[in-house]
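Throughout our pipeline, every protein is held as a single compact record rather than as scattered files. Such a record has a labelled line for the sequence and another for the backbone structure tokens. This encoding replaces a full spatial description with a residue-level series of whole-number codes. For reference, a complete record is included directly beneath this paragraph.
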Amino acid sequence: METTRQQKIARLIQKELGDIFQKQTQATRGVLVSVSAVRISPDLSIAKGYLSVFPSEKADEIISNINANARQIRFDLGKRVRFQLRIIPELKFFKDDSLDYLDHIDELLKGTSPAPAEPQEAEDHEG
């Protein structure tokens, strides 16, 4: 169970990371990175960021690149939140594949559901 403080810090970090990634991805055409969730440890030392990447084919490459540059991202985050947080948590990033999962479920449901029946014309029976 997350405390109120954890939730507030997670929201702050999510917002700021979203801004950082938006500025970084403006230079890269055709790539969009958004922060879908941030979970922070109870001692506030580790923040796990879940990133949604479009197009999803490049997601693994982009996430590994972001994790390789986590120190620089943490530094940029620290400059933005230096008056709100005393200690900037260590950042770890993971792929958020919930949208891919939903698409997969939709495809499965469409594939197994029976074809929609043709609407039959109503016959007039007067009686």
Remarks:
- The first helix runs from residue 4 to 25.
- Strands lie at 32-40, 46-54, 90-95.
- The radius of gyration is 22 Å.
- The chain has a mean pLDDT of 85.
